[in-house]
Write a structure and sequence with these properties.
This protein has 8 helices and 7 strands, in the order E-E-E-E-H-H-H-H-H-E-E-E-H-H-H. The chain is an alpha+beta fold. The protein folds into 3 domains: 30 residues, no CATH class; 60 residues; 99 residues, Iron/manganese superoxide dismutase, C-terminal domain (minor pseudopilin epsh fold, 3-Layer(bab) Sandwich). A hairpin with a 5-residue loop joins strand 2 and strand 3.
Amino acid sequence: MLKRREFLVLTGAGGAAVLAVGARPARGRIRIPSEEERTMTYTAKDYSRLIGTAGFSETLLKNHFTLYQGYVANTNKVLDIMAQLAKDGKAATPEFAEIKRRLGWEFNGMRLHELYFENLGGKAGLDPNGRLAKAMAASFGSVEAWEKDFRATGAMRGIGWAVLYEDPVNGRLINFWINEHDVAHPAGCRPLLIMDVFEHAFMLDYGLKRADYIEAFFKAVDWTAVEARSK
Ligand SMILES: [Fe+2]
């Protein structure tokens, strides 16, 4: 139930209004970003710790890091352009619409790569008695059935991502195919395990043998990081 309590307008980095709250749930917990947070630009993280990961050559990883840095730079660029267009009173223009559409692609390109790199470099396998394994078995019948489905999702023709999502509504785990970076994300679900299946993620090392890359990916998963994403 909504209760009219206050009206807030926050101003974004480029001067554009980014949040207007005229009415909010009485128990709402919208986070109010600090001055520092709302004016920050995204910074590329350093994943050089992954160099040396079995199954991933140094050249492939370095190329991949460079691509990721491009998404970070472009996310900042798109946000700046969007804010400037709004400030200039050009929000109803095709330019604004196109840059707004672009934001989902660049932002997800940035964030998915971070989730991907952060679920690599693991030393231990999936704990068969852990909550994640139990949730996989509950959702798919067995951990093996989940893995088979995830590998098949990643092996689909096309460029994109295989993502294991957790639906917080009922705890169900579902493997999704994300087309490119931005198509088919399930609203409100939590990404647990992310696998990049754009060709740049494997072709240098494996050519067209995507299944071999998926095998290497599974050997390199940091299951501790994956488990920690579930709440
Ligand atoms: Fe990638």
